[in-house]
């Protein structure tokens, strides 16, 4: 569940599965973009879908990886690096 500090503008949850090669790819992309942007304003958490299945269902997650931004499902597939970067930048404005 998102918990934001006053300085944070963006809370990212990456919902992953144990045998999900795409999850590794998107995690690397997210870390790269977070480092490029303002990491002090971003809180990142990885969540195993099986450990938090009720939360995933509540969000509407039907496959992994899924990216949740500030408590709302933003991507349910692997977006391009450009699309992901642009979306995160929009949240930080």
Automatic annotation (TrEMBL):
One Pfam family matching this protein: Thioredoxin_3
Protein name stated in the entry: Thioredoxin-like fold domain-containing protein
All copies of domain Thioredoxin-like fold, residue ranges: 13-88
Xref: InterPro entries: Thioredoxin-like_fold, Thioredoxin-like_sf
